Amino acid sequence: MTTIAWDGKTVSADSRATVGGDRIYQAKAQKIIKVKFGVVATCGAFNHRFFEFAAWADKGARGGHFYTKSDDTDYIFFSNIDHTVYIFGKDWRDHSEEPMFATGSGGKFALAAMLAGAKSKKAVEIACKLDPFSGGEVVSFPWKRKV
To answer: What is each CA distance from 65 to 21, 56, 57, 60, in whole angstroms?
Structure first.
């Protein structure tokens, strides 16, 4: 469970680890990584596939679509190659044209905060106060879609 938010300029994610959707750990989970060709993030059932996804994106996303093997995990690629947001997984979309978006168990809280004027980091911090499955340090990386 996670909160990932993008405000049009910055991608932010919480770092709380949960197991089975009901056990909350204070361990820091790495849910967002800066790679050579952009930023990658994950929410849902965190597993080793995220690091495979990061390696795929780091090599320029060769081969097109990243195939997921899980119905409960999203992998998000903020691409510097074509300046598009790609979402693979349960909420699969080829790209996102929205000026901002948020996903994960705290996504609706974060999106509401951004619609009220919060930047992505603050929006995730707000979501962490409302969503028991999001928490810990909020990690952010700049990423802007070039038009």
So the answer is: 28, 10, 10, 12
